[in-house]
């Protein structure tokens, strides 16, 4: 129904006598087409009321008159007819209708028109060659009208999608704005038909990422134009949301923040962005969506690397007099010893050395750190520093 005349060629001109006969039939034919469409293609009761019948009939008359002009071979452009067909498609898109009803109306219209042509041809004894010309012209013409309607429909859908994306982007920025008034948020959400959720999960995306908008769920808000693109998913991030994200992101990389109350969405996004940065640095594995909830300790320990450097200098200052190799060996031993809660045998197993080696090193460390290893607060700080240093140093092989 929607193929155009391209490649088929327009049928040759119809004899003037036949044109005169067809022109005389136009008013009653238009009325018959409108009546038959109304009978055969019922309106959707859930949608706005249809255009008044008289307006539709005038439109059909214009379209049929344009057909008669076209088959004369004189007129080749019909701007009003083209705009009328495109407007039919645009109206369907704006009202949320599919093209099924319009295409059904076109099918009914061409059937009624062809029955009338066949009847006139029989009464007037028109030659079969003329009938063939009329058939080619009529069906090609309907194809052309349907193509114009589809064009208008797609244009409107594209514009609507862009407008909706812009509204969603503004709403998302309002959600993330500190202290945004609840009534303003509710009003903006209502204007775009978005239900304000109690909880949300934020997702951080790489800069200039490719995202298939059509694959995103309708309730997901997206800001893909931001220098740090991100999404808002209402509620928790479950298996279905994960499938959606995998389909929407051909390059797969993303970081999913924690599910939090709506007012804390900015925190969820901040954690997601930090996790994404650690993925890009090779600290966290890049295996599709990276879930913050699986890396909370890492996110906490590496939340402020400049502060970590300062803390590391102060807590490990006692080792500054050793060589680089000695410092590396001693910090590795101290970290394993702290994780093993002071058990020399378990520490030796982790380091793959003899327990006596561990005891020797720990005696030196006890002397070096003086009373720090006996103080719970100092041991906790040392443990945190060494774990964070190890996490930062253990880059993924592909990122080195």
Automatic annotation (TrEMBL):
Name listed for the protein in its UniProt record: PucR-like helix-turn-helix protein
Q: Tell me, what's a Pfam family for it?
A: PucR-like_N
Which parts of the sequence belong to the PucR C-terminal helix-turn-helix domain? 331-388
- Tell me the InterPro entries matching this sequence: CdaR-like_regulators (IPR051448), PucR-like_N (IPR058663), PucR_C-HTH_dom (IPR025736), PucR_C-HTH_sf (IPR042070)
Tell me the organism. Actinomadura hallensis
Domain of life assignment: Bacteria
Q: Which residues form the PucR-like N-terminal domain?
A: 14-176
């Amino acid at each position: 129904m929607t193929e155009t005349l391209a490649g088929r060629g327009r049928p040759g001109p119809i004899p003037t006598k036949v044109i005169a006969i067809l022109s005389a039939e136009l008013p009653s034919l238009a009325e018959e087409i409108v009546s038959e469409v109304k009978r055969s293609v019922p309106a959707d009761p859930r949608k706005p009321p249809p255009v008044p019948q008289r307006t539709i009939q005038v439109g059909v008359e214009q379209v049929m008159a344009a057909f008669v002009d076209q088959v004369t071979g004189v007129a080749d452009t019909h701007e009003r007819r083209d705009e009328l067909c495109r407007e039919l498609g645009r109206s369907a898109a704006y009202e949320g209708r599919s093209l099924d009803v319009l295409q059904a109306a076109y099918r009914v219209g061409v059937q009624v028109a062809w029955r009338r042509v066949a009847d006139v041809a029989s009464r007037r004894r028109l030659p079969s060659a003329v009938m063939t010309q009329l058939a080619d012209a009529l069906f090609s013409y309907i194809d052309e009208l349907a193509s114009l309607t589809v064009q208008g429909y797609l244009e409107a859908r594209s514009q609507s999608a862009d407008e909706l994306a812009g509204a969603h982007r503004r709403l998302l920025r309002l959600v993330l704005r500190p202290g945004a008034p609840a009534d303003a948020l509710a009003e903006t959400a209502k204007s775009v038909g978005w239900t304000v959720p109690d909880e949300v999960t934020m997702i951080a995306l790489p800069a200039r990422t490719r995202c298939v908008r059509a694959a995103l769920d309708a309730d997901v808000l997206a800001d893909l134009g931001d220098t740090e693109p991100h999404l808002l998913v209402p509620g928790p991030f479950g298996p279905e949301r994960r499938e959606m994200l995998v389909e929407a992101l051909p390059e797969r990389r993303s970081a999913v923040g924690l599910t939090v109350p709506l007012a804390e969405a900015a925190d969820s996004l901040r954690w997601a962005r930090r996790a994404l940065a650690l993925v890009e640095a090779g600290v966290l594995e890049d295996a599709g969506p990276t879930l913050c909830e699986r890396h909370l300790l890492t996110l906490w320990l590496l939340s402020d690397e400049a502060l970590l450097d300062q803390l590391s200098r102060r807590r490990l200052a006692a080792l500054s007099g050793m060589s680089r190799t000695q410092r590396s060996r001693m910090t590795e031993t101290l970290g394993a010893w702290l994780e093993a809660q002071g058990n020399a045998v378990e520490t030796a197993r982790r380091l793959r050395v003899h327990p006596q080696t561990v005891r020797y090193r720990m005696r030196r460390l006890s002397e070096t750190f003086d009373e720090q290893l006996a103080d719970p607060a100092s041991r906790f700080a040392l443990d945190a520093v060494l774990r964070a240093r190890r996490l930062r140093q253990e880059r993924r092989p592909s990122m080195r």
